[in-house]
Amino acid sequence: MKNIIVHLNKTFDHRVRLGIMSILMVNDWVDFKTLKEMLEVTDGRLASHIKALEAEAFIEVRKQFLGRKPNTSYSATVSGRKAFNDHLDALEKLLKMRD
Question: Which of 9, 40, 73, 75 could bridge to 31 as Cys pair (CB 3.0-4.6 Å)?
Fold first, then answer.
């Protein structure tokens, strides 16, 4: 039998990364605080998963000031969107398999 999971992207194996990408796929830009609240994770945990996605060039980071407060927000890159859609397609194929 062929390796049925070969097309799954290991970058999205963790639920937090899957959550980050899911949120970014339906929003143009999302700030750190919003991601943290939606995913119910700590600052450090979120930061480490963001770093992993950024290292793969799947997300883009924008740092700016809103008034006098720093604000960091994130967006899925074109390659990140493609990789995530490919991952979802592979999951769908896996779910449609029959014995």
Answer: 73
